[in-house]
Write a structure and sequence with these properties.
- The protein contains four helices and 31 strands.
- It has about 450 residues and is mainly beta.
- It folds into three domains: about 5-160, Immunoglobulin-like, CATH 2.60.40.420; about 170-310, Cupredoxins -  blue copper proteins (Immunoglobulin-like, Sandwich); about 340-460, Immunoglobulin-like (Sandwich), CATH 2.60.40.
- Strands 11-10-9-13-18-15-16 form a seven-stranded mixed sheet, with no helix packed on it.
- Bound molecules: CU-O-CU linkage and copper (II) ion.
- Copper (II) ion binds near residues 443, 445 and 448.
Length: about 450
């Protein structure tokens, strides 16, 4: 008996081909994935469950977080353009929620906003189903009490691959976030005054849910990072010493032409797709920092913070693949007279509370825009306040036309769904509406949208 077991073990060993290089330990920054319940290679069908779980951030004691399927951030849904996504959603939280698919062009009934669906009560279910039309990085999160539900951990990622993707040596999804924790690991009170004004910023910076993260890279490799900021209020103004990033894409997929930058400002809900050549000195860490950025109320008067350590693995540097110089064509939408004037502002209501307004009103009192289906519309968004607001439109991309009367640079054409509108700045952008229903637009600082800075567009 004993001999038999030994020989089986020996057989198993000799049959499995030994790896030619050492297999690295599981990457702690790898995002979780979900089992595909559907055999059709063009359908991803998953069970998604919002539920509480325990998570330890860094060195603080365990925190009771809100999760999709037990992890913060939630799972990565990996699909291709044209695939169908079917999500059997169950709410196991103690309060109602919905799932919004940020940036995805889909039927309004699947959008997860309260204009289009009833909240899913505790114990309730909802079936989301739609086809992914665009390549890019998208994300999903609740669309109610977002200031609390997203902060507690509810955010997941969708990566949609197109038919032509750049050849790289290494690719990573980077989910930027922060969380505010007390020493005992619990969340301090939600709407304190600074959070109400600036959006809640955390005391613990997270990369893919990990505090004090180390991002491994292959020395010298052509590296692609697909970055999303899921924080409530923090803007990340990223810098990696000696690395010039080539920005190859943003919210709505690839740019026509990459551009180079040494700072990457990523507001809440924005995505950036960047390529760079990884530092080549093996085992020598460099710091990925977030540099001060003034977004109003002296928020820029502070020191840089460390977001993560970037560590070239202890292997020989490789000769990187050539970075691509051009991507897809992007159809430029036409300019035209302004038909959707929007003024963003802050103020106080008659109870003396801080509110955020659109055209002088607090949501849901903001009058919806009524638009015919299949029409192209020009927005003029005037930010009358002293602080930046990341403006987000559901269900459609938009293209920047001008900022304070200055035309947008022609070589920066991009499809966006979230864009920073700096304080005291007016931008014009254009969008094509081709899906009927009620669609939301709002500031993506969650405390601001919950505080009233949200409106609707009704497409008939
Ligand atoms: Cu990511 Cu209406 O939001
Ligand atoms: Cu705002």
């Amino acid at each position: 008996m004993k001999d038999l077991r030994v020989s089986i073990a020996a057989l198993a060993l000799s049959c499995s081909s030994p790896p030619s290089v050492a297999v690295p330990d599981r990457d702690p920054l790898e995002l979780s994935t979900l089992e595909d319940l559907n055999a059709d290679p063009n359908i991803l069908e998953v069970n998604l469950e919002a539920r509480e779980a325990d998570k330890q951030f860094g060195t603080t004691p365990v925190t009771r977080v809100w999760t999709y399927n037990g992890t913060v951030p939630g799972p990565l849904l990996d699909v291709k353009v044209g695939d169908r996504l079917i999500v059997h959603f169950t709410n196991r939280l103690p309060e109602p929620t919905t799932v919004h698919w940020h940036g995805v062009r889909l039927p309004a009934a699947m959008d997860g906003s309260l204009a289009m669906q009833a909240p899913v009560p505790p114990g309730g279910t909802f079936r989301y189903e739609f086809v992914l039309k665009d390549a890019g990085l998208f994300w999903f999160h609740p669309h109610m009490r977002t200031d609390v539900q997203i902060e507690k951990g509810l955010a997941g990622v969708i990566r949609v691959r197109g038919s032509e993707e750049p050849q790289v040596d290494e690719e990573r999804v980077i989910v930027l976030d922060d969380v505010r924790l007390k020493e005992d690991g619990t969340f301090p009170t939600f709407l304190d005054d600074t959070s109400k004004m600036m959006g809640r910023e955390g005391n613990t910076i997270l990369v893919n849910g990990i505090a004090n993260a180390t991002i491994a890279v292959t020395p010298g490799a052509a590296t692609r990072w697909r970055i999303v900021n899921v924080a409530n209020g923090r803007f990340f103004n990223l810098r990696l010493p000696n690395a010039n990033w080539w920005v190859i894409g943003t919210d709505g997929g690839f740019l026509p032409k990459p551009y180079q930058t040494d700072r990457l400002l990523v507001a809440p809900a924005e995505r950036y797709d960047v390529m760079f050549v990884a530092p080549s000195a093996r085992n020598t860490e460099v710091q990925l920092t977030s540099e001060p950025y003034e977004r109003g109320h002296h928020s820029g008067e502070r020191d840089p913070i460390v977001v993560a350590q970037v560590r070239p693995r202890d292997v020989d540097a490789i000769q990187p693949k050539a970075l691509p110089t051009a991507f897809r064509e992007l159809v430029k939408l036409p300019d035209g007279p302004v038909d959707m004037p929007i003024t963003l502002d802050e103020g106080t209501n008659d109870k003396g509370e801080l509110v955020f307004t659109i055209n002088g009103k607090v949501f849901p009192d903001v009058a919806p825009f009524m638009i015919a289906n299949n029409s192209t519309r020009v927005f003029e968004v005037k930010n009358a306040s002293d602080m930046d607001h990341p403006f987000h439109l559901h269900g459609f991309f938009f293209q920047l036309l001008e900022t304070n009367g200055v035309p947008a640079p022609a070589d920066r054409l991009a499809n966006k769904d979230t864009m920073i509108i700096p304080g005291k700045t007016t931008v014009k952008f254009v969008s094509h509406f081709d899906e009927p229903g009620m669609w939301m637009y709002h500031c993506h600082i969650n405390e601001h949208s919950e505080g009233g800075m949200m409106g609707e567009i009704h497409i008939q």
